[in-house]
Specification:
Blueprint (H helix, E strand, L loop, with lengths): L13 H11 L4 E4 L6 H14 L2 E5 L11 E5 L2 H7 L6 E5 L15 E6 L11 E5 L6 H10 L4 E5 L8 H9 L2 E5 L9 E2 L2 H8 L8
Parallel strand pairs: 1-2, 2-9, 3-8, 4-5, 4-7, 5-6, 7-8
Helix pairs in contact: 1-2, 4-5
C-alpha cells in the first residue's frame, strides 16, 4: 500500500525555524504553494531558501483580470478598501476572510454580509449577517445570494482561480461595484501557474501531460 507523505501542521517559527527545518530534513527543493495573500510565509520561504542555498519555486494561480462590464475599484490593501466604501449606509458583502475584517469596524454604518467556512468562534468586531458555507460557489448561487440580500458593494481579494470567481461574474451581471484588493508585493522568485510546470522543474517530465 502507498505510504502517506510526511506531514507537518503549524508554523515553523519564522525564517530561522524554517531554515532549521530545511537543514534538519535535508530538503533540496521548496515549493511555495500557499495562498496568494499569505505574504509572510512566502517571504519567509524566500529568505530561508536563500539562507540555506535551497532551490525555491512558487505555484501561484494567475490573478483575475477585468472583463468588459466589470466595475472594479482597485486598492492595495484592506485599509484602502475600507476607505473606498461610501459614507452613506450600504449593504456590503465582505468576501475577504475573517482575519481581515477588523478594519471595517471603522465604518459600522454599513450592513455587512460575511461568509465563512466555519462558524466564528469569537465575537465579530461589528454586527453582520454571517453565512457559513464552503465553496466553490456557482454563478446562480452567488446571484441569488446578492439579490436576496440586496448587496450593493462587494469587497474581494484578487486571489485568482476558478473556485471563487463566481462572485465576480455575478457582480458584473448585476452591475455592482467591486473593491478589489491587489496582491501583496513579494520578493522576486521563480514562479509558475501549473503543477505540470512544477513537475518539469523537479525533473519529472513524464508528468507534464497529466
Amino acid at each position: 500500500a502507498d505510504q502517506p507523505l510526511p506531514t507537518r501542521i503549524g508554523g515553523f517559527g519564522g525564517v530561522s525555524g524554517l531554515a532549521g527545518y530545511i537543514r534538519s530534513e535535508g530538503i533540496t527543493h521548496v515549493i511555495d504553494a500557499t495562498h496568494p495573500f499569505a505574504a509572510e510565509m512566502s517571504r519567509h520561504a524566500v529568505e530561508a531558501s536563500a539562507e540555506t542555498g535551497t532551490q525555491l519555486i512558487a505555484l501561484e494561480r494567475a490573478p483575475w483580470t477585468r472583463a468588459p462590464g466589470d466595475n472594479w475599484i482597485e486598492v492595495h490593501d484592506v485599509n484602502a478598501a475600507v476607505a473606498a466604501l461610501p459614507e452613506a449606509t450600504a449593504k456590503v458583502f465582505l468576501a475577504i476572510g475573517r482575519q481581515h475584517i477588523a478594519p471595517f469596524a471603522t465604518k459600522p454604518q454599513h450592513a455587512y454580509t460575511l461568509r465563512f467556512v466555519d462558524p466564528p468562534e469569537a465575537p465579530l468586531p461589528f454586527a453582520a449577517d454571517v453565512i457559513v458555507s464552503r465553496g466553490p460557489f456557482t454563478l446562480e448561487g452567488e446571484l441569488e445570494m446578492m439579490r436576496t440580500r440586496s448587496i450593493a458593494w462587494i469587497v474581494a481579494r484578487n486571489s485568482g482561480g476558478d473556485g471563487a470567481h463566481a462572485k465576480i461574474d455575478a457582480a458584473r451581471m448585476l452591475g455592482l461595484p467591486v473593491i478589489m484588493i491587489g496582491r501583496p508585493k513579494l520578493p522576486e522568485r521563480l514562479r509558475v501557474e501549473s503543477v505540470g510546470e512544477i513537475m518539469q522543474w523537479l525533473g519529472h517530465r513524464a508528468c507534464l501531460g497529466a
